[in-house]
Amino acid sequence: MKSIQSIHSLKAGVIGTGFIGPVHVEALRRLGVTVTAICDVADLGAKAAARLAIPHAFADYRDLLTSPEVDVVHITTPNRFHCEMSLAALRAGKHVVCEKPLAMNTRETARIVAATRAAKRVFAVNYNVRFYPAVLALRRLVEHGDLGDIIHVNGSYMQDWLFKGTDYNWRLLPKEGGKLRAVADIGTHWMDTVSFILGAGIQSVLADLATWHKTRQRPLGEVQTFAKADAKMKYATYRVQTDDFASVLLRFANGARGNLGVSQVAAGRKNCIRIEIYGSKKSAWWCSEEPETLHFGNRDGANESAVRATPAFGDGAAGLMDYPPGHVEGFPDTFKMNFRNIYTAIAGGPGERLFASANDGHQEVAVCEAILKSNQARKWVSVL
Ligand SMILES: NC(=O)c1ccc[n+]([C@@H]2O[C@H](COP(=O)([O-])OP(=O)(O)OC[C@H]3O[C@@H](n4cnc5c(N)ncnc54)[C@H](O)[C@@H]3O)[C@@H](O)[C@H]2O)c1
Questions:
Q1: Gap between the Cα atoms of 52 and 27, Å rounded
Q2: Nearest partner of 179 among 207, 160, 204, judged by Cα
């Protein structure tokens, strides 16, 4: 019989100390997992280790991978490093939690899927939005048929941190982030979340991609994610080759239709994901700006709202919430709950694997490639 270890005996190492790396560290610590090692280029790893009180710091990720002090590797570097680092981590016998999107294209993601299968290690992609309690509740409602047959899904993912022509980040460059930007960076969160709720993947797409800032100003020197422009900065002009915003029509494997709006130039929307599911019995909708409340729409009776962790909310998020109603669980908690689910699987513990697998990450990149093709051909394209 397979033995079950405690998740507290597992040791984590994190590669990348920018915006999201420290979010991983914090979530792991809230679960009681020890973060033993951290890595970033030049002296950034050592600085983060001092700031976050992590015992081992590395400037070369390959040194972190050979450390016996690391069981699980978290990859929180820009997208172009994900494939190389994932394959190396699996070769080193580590379990992996890789940030989204899984890699730059499906050639890379297919290699990760094959390597995961061969390595017999747990590989997770950090589609953390799955772990908002409302998303887990919606998934259960759909599974139980409470909404009826799903007719269509509507929604968006809107941000404004790349609103100005002087806003800069590596994601704007295809060689760093991939050929798609807004769609790959945030659109895949929405598509993964909705596929997860419906239990049905995306089969075909019709996409319209657009770039508002045809040229942008790049600050000379590196800039951290979400950093604001500074009057003293010097800039160089460059041509933008990636999408600022997009509209995508979707067909899901269960017959449902969807329409998704994505934008990183939507003033006032800081980080807003909105999902509306219209079923043959009733509809349900949720927005991350108001994460604790699920709304239900009825044709004849009054519409209803359910507060998280109350009976009306349902039991879909049972075991993946820690706070009573009225004590908001939000973005950082989704990381904690995702990691709880992943580390429980690594430890051989019980329960359904709800986290996104390497194959799920591969599927999202395949949808991105279909979206790119559809935009170029101006027609519906099947997801291969
Ligand atoms: N799940 C989410 O909600 C979420 C949110 C933000 C970012 N992300 C993903 O996380 C990843 C990182 O994004 P970010 O916003 O934190 O970027 P960032 O630029 O803020 O941080 C990236 C860090 O990686 C480091 N790095 C670059 N090359 C490296 C190398 N060879 N070895 C070690 N470190 C290296 C950089 O120096 C930097 O500190 C991206 O894939 C992004 O899509 C996910």
A1: 13
A2: 207
133 lines ligand 1 (CB under 6 A): no
Provide the pLDDT for residue 222. Answer: 66
Structural tokens at position 158: 């809107």
> Could you tell me which residues come within 8 angstroms of residue 175 by beta carbon, excluding any fewer than 6 positions away?
80
User: CB burial class (10 A; 0-12, 13-18, 19+) of residue 308?
Assistant: buried
Rounded percentage of the chain residues whose pLDDT exceeds 90: 94
Please give the number of the atom of ligand 1 that sits closest to the Cα of 79: 41
Ligand 1 centroid to Cα of residue 17, in Å, is 7
Closest CA to 169 of 234, 127, 209, 229: 229
Ligand 1 mean position, distance from CA 21 (Å): 7
Residue 1 pLDDT class (50, 70, 90 cuts): very low
The model's pLDDT over 168-209, given as tens digits with 9 standing for 90+, comes to 999 999 999 999 999 999 999 999 999 999 999 999 999 999
Residue identifier of the C-alpha nearest atom 14 of ligand 1: 19
Q: Please, what are the domains in the chain?
A: 7-128 (3.40.50.720), 132-324+356-377 (3.30.360.10)
